[in-house]
Amino acid sequence: MSNLKVSYLVVGGGIAGVTCVETLAILHPEETLAIITASSLVKNVTNVSFYAKTIVKFDVSETEANSLLKIHPNLNIIYDSLKHINTMQKLVTTDGGNIIEYNVICICTGGIPRLISDSNKCNRILGIRDTDSVKEFEEKLKTGRRMVIVGNGGIASEIVYATKGIQKVWVIRDDYISATFIDPGAAEFFQNTMKNRSPEVEKNKHTILRRHVFTEEDTVVAINKNIKSAALGPDWYRKLESVKNENGEQELEIIYKVEVESVQEVDNNEYCLEVKLTNGRTISCDFVISATGVEPAVNFTFDKEPKRGNDGGLAVNENQETTVKDVFAAGDVAFAAWPYAPHWFQLRLWTQARQMAGMAAKAMHARITNEDVLQDFCFELFTHCTTLFGYRVVLLGKYNGQGLGNDYEILLRTTPNVEYIKFVLQNGRLQGAILIGETNLEEMCENLILDQIDLTPFGDDILNPDIDIDDYFD
Ligand SMILES: Cc1cc2nc3c(=O)[nH]c(=O)nc-3n(C[C@H](O)[C@H](O)[C@H](O)COP(=O)(O)OP(=O)(O)OC[C@H]3O[C@@H](n4cnc5c(N)ncnc54)[C@H](O)[C@@H]3O)c2cc1C
Ligand SMILES: NC(=O)C1=CN([C@@H]2O[C@H](COP(=O)(O)OP(=O)(O)OC[C@H]3O[C@@H](n4cnc5c(N)ncnc54)[C@H](OP(=O)(O)O)[C@@H]3O)[C@@H](O)[C@H]2O)C=CC1
């Protein structure tokens, strides 16, 4: 137990918390800084590379929290969990009884899986977030014969792709797969490649994976067992590829446009779970993966509650400050409540956790030094680089026509098993793009979206592979 007084206090050892600490250490090295982390390992970002000004790719790795001392020798690391924030007196208390006074605080407590409604009745409905949850999943995978996967976003797509030797029933409420990230055309592109995974595609799959392989060690120490440690690293699902299940052939059935009505444990059946769907069908299985999104982790109390967003996240302005002065928030726990630039929106991703935390650090520093701060340029354009079904995927701007109504055009170029390129245009100007494969179009698309150049004169040539469109703009 200790009493401590610092200028800057950061809570959470995920990408957001660590980025905030790293940025503050650079901006204000002489000032006192502390981090409260509920787990002995923290996340950090390495191998940052730029495809373009705002399109950044990086690896996410995990490291001992005390390695942060390298960047800030006077950093106070408090291995504990936040319990209460007294915003009037500007002090926090922790579950372990520590009291820390601050001038400015940044809350980066991340999120937890938002599970389907019957999850509280049965422990065979799993969510994936941290190492422990993956271990439990691996155990179930080793002996399971059939699993039901609910949800149509990143985690469900990765699980469907990576698991073998088990029957999979993928239950989605859309009429095409992976709807969070792609459109129906790209879904078809992926499904075709999944059907006939040729040796060539298998080869590509390995060459385009990120360099860092997820290796979160068993040595991770959870300080508070009720609090999940940071979200997993990028290659987490590769562990699933090596799980041996001798039960049988891989089979995938996708059931579109349905939801789960109920899940019941049964003991008179070959399988111990029955999943009833809204279309009247019942599926017997061993366990259910609920990959149905994230809930912000506001797992502590306030004397004065800041405003929340409609998803329960702490509402923040363009400087990442909540509605309570000197209380900032970043990453999955935050709800972006400022008026967005035309080509940006919030999705809970590493990139945004990192960007928000960098912005929060700048604004916290500006508060302490009494300076003005402007929102970072990165919030001008939504960008996401990832790997789906073994392919590089870059998403830019309003890549699925989000918020554009019905008044937009789509331009497509696709080569089976190689690339899928979609441009979303409105009034002849590029609003968003999906780039799958090694397209090398990232920088051009970024410029076209940010500069809103009228592309009408180019017609369909904008996607003609024989014309180097960059030449037009040089
Ligand atoms: C399986 C999986 C795969 C993903 N894949 C991708 C991907 O490919 N690309 C991508 O962009 N994004 C991906 N994401 C999303 C990405 O991981 C998150 O958006 C990002 O990690 C959020 O970072 P964060 O720091 O806000 O939260 P977290 O990583 O959740 O970190 C929160 C930290 O706060 C700590 N904490 C919580 N409560 C307290 C408390 N009361 N006191 C002290 N500490 C506390 C936790 O222990 C944790 O260390 C994935 C997520 C998951 C679960
Ligand atoms: N490669 C990547 O970039 C990856 C990113 N992630 C990130 O990790 C986090 C967690 O991933 P994930 O859980 O996949 O979350 P996502 O938000 O990506 O996807 C959730 C999915 O579940 C659906 N859903 C929500 N509630 C229900 C319900 N009750 N019944 C049926 N379907 C439902 C959503 O549909 P609807 O859209 O209709 O609400 C959506 O398709 C996200 O922030 C995600 O972006 C995770 C893995 C990989």
Automatic annotation (TrEMBL):
Its cofactor is FAD. The keyword Flavoprotein applies. Transmembrane segments: none annotated. One of its GO terms (molecular function) is oxidoreductase activity. Pfam families: Pyr_redox_2. Residues 8-357 form the FAD/NAD(P)-binding domain. The keyword Transmembrane does not apply. Keywords: FAD, Flavoprotein. Belongs to the class-I pyridine nucleotide-disulfide oxidoreductase family. PYROXD1 subfamily. PANTHER family: PYRIDINE NUCLEOTIDE-DISULFIDE OXIDOREDUCTASE DOMAIN-CONTAINING (PTHR43429), PYRIDINE NUCLEOTIDE-DISULFIDE OXIDOREDUCTASE DOMAIN-CONTAINING PROTEIN 1 (PTHR43429:SF2). This is Pyridine nucleotide-disulfide oxidoreductase domain-containing protein 1. It comes from Parnassius mnemosyne (clouded apollo).
